[in-house]
Structure formats: structure tokens, C-alpha cells
Amino acid sequence: MHFSVLTAVTLPEELAVSPREVKKAKTALMMIRALLKLSPNNVDLQLAKETCERRLSPLERTVHDLTAETLEPYGMFSEEPADTSFYWDYFKVGGSWSRCFLVKEDCRSAVLGIQNSPDICTKPAPEGYLWVAGARKCDIAWDKMKEIFLDSFPQSFEQLQAWFRAGKAPEDKYPFVYVTGQGIIARYQTVYQKDETLEQHRCRMDCFRNSRYFLNPFAFAGSSGGESCDDLTEEDPDGVLGLRWHQMVHEFIAGLPEEAMLVSVDCHR
Question: 3-state class of 212 per DSSP?
Fold first, then answer.
């Protein structure tokens, strides 16, 4: 199963990739491009090409390595889980959550990561902006993100309501959206509850409206520690959309320095 994890890393002043790694990545890229000429529609080869191109970028490579270091204390790459509520066997920077942060098009700290299917609730970026998997906290357009979220709220609710009444989501949303008898689950998060009105839905999501940082990852991790919403099941039955969990995520982001690099990670376990 895949989960959204928010990580915070500190970038070095200078970013560099060793000549050896550059040579390996270039060789692999040449081979992949040759194979793509024979099979241009091969999705796996296209993804491998994007990955190799990212590895030639000092910023992308450094963020990937720092993210691995940040997740390692939580059992990353271990043969046996250190903590069953917070354990990942592999990860991707971006992945299914590659459109997490909105930044200006000329943002120098922007990290694209590996881009899988776009997030189901992500709206098109306004002119002059783009959605990315990571960026410095000070470079993220938090106010613009909030504006887009609030403007699209009624329309998003009507869409979810229509899917629930139909008993299924559009085929292009599968396998990320499931309609159940009690509501709609999107990427393991309950985004719509049966019979709720727009106002009830708005109240349930009010914590997002009234704060600057309204991300809702499954877990977060940084040098100061990490938390998973799995640990809140008893005190906060709403889990990843619960008020207590949102407050913890908000406090985590608010406590970071403005130069901290926030990275959206797709973790598997």
C-alpha cells in the first residue's frame, strides 16, 4: 500500500553529484533512449528515462538522498519493521503525490521527483505557477494554494456527491478512488461521508480553511522527529482528516525554518 508522507530536509549550500554517478546515469540514459526508439509507448521505459534524467540533477539527487536519511530511523530498508505503525520498505520523491506544493515557475528550489498519476484533487496550476513535489518552505505559495482550495471547494463536493450517488468513480480515477456504502475513499483517506451536506462537509474540513498550512499527509518526518496518523486512531477516529492530526501537521510545518526543504514522498509498505 502507498501512503503520503511529508518530510523536511536541510539542503547543503552547494549541491553536487559525483562524476562517477553522472557517468553511470548518462550510460543508463543512453540505453533507455535506445530502447524507447524500439518501444516508444513502453510506460516502464518512459518512467525509467525520467528517473535517470532526475538523477543528473544535483538538486533532485540530493533531495532524494536526504529524504532516505530522514526516513531511515523509521525502519526504511530494514529487514524487520522497527515500528509497525511507521515503517516503509521503499519510497519515491513525488510518486502518486507529485503535485503537492504550488510554486512560481522560476522557483530555484523546486523538485519534480518521479511523477505518477496526478493527485485526484489537484487543480491546474494558475498561470505563472506549477505544482511540484518539493520546495523550500519560503518558496511555496501557501496563500495561493489556500485560495485555490477554497474556490474549488463547492465544486469538488458536488463531484464527490455525484460519484457517491452513482456508486462509482470515473474509470480514469481507478484505482485511487473507491466508492463504498459509507462514503468515498481517495488514496486511503475518507474524503466524503454518506449523507453529509455541504455545510457538514465544510465543517469537517474547517481545520483546512482556518490555517495557513492545510496539508493532510498520512505521516510526517524530519530531524526533530516524526508522527503517523495511525497512532491517533483511539483519540481521533477521523484519522488523517481529523482536527488533532491536522494540528500536529500544522505545528510541524510552522516549527520549521523558512529555508527548510519540504518534500512530498510516496511511501510503500
Answer: coil
Q: Can you give the length of the chain in residues?
A: 269
The whole-angstrom separation of Cα 236 and Cα 234 is: 6
The model's pTM? 0.71
> What's at 128, amino acid-wise?
G
End-to-end CA distance of the chain: 6
11-52 pLDDT per residue, tens? 887 665 566 777 788 888 899 999 999 998 898 898 888 878
- Asked if residue 175 has a cis previous peptide bond (ω within 30° of 0), the answer is yes
Q: How far apart are CA 238 and CA 233, in angstroms?
A: 8
Residue 91 · residue 72 · CB < 8 Å: no
CB 51 within 8 A of CB 29: no
What would the grid cell of residue 223 be?
A: 530531524
State the Cα–Cα distance between residues 219 and 73, nearest whole angstrom: 14
Q: Which residue has the cell 544535483?
A: 58
Residue listed under C-alpha cell 530494514: 78
Rounded to 10 degrees, the C-alpha dihedral 126/127/128/130 comes to 40
What DSSP state is assigned to residue 158?
H
pLDDT tens readout for residues 149-178: 777 777 778 888 888 888 887 766 655 677
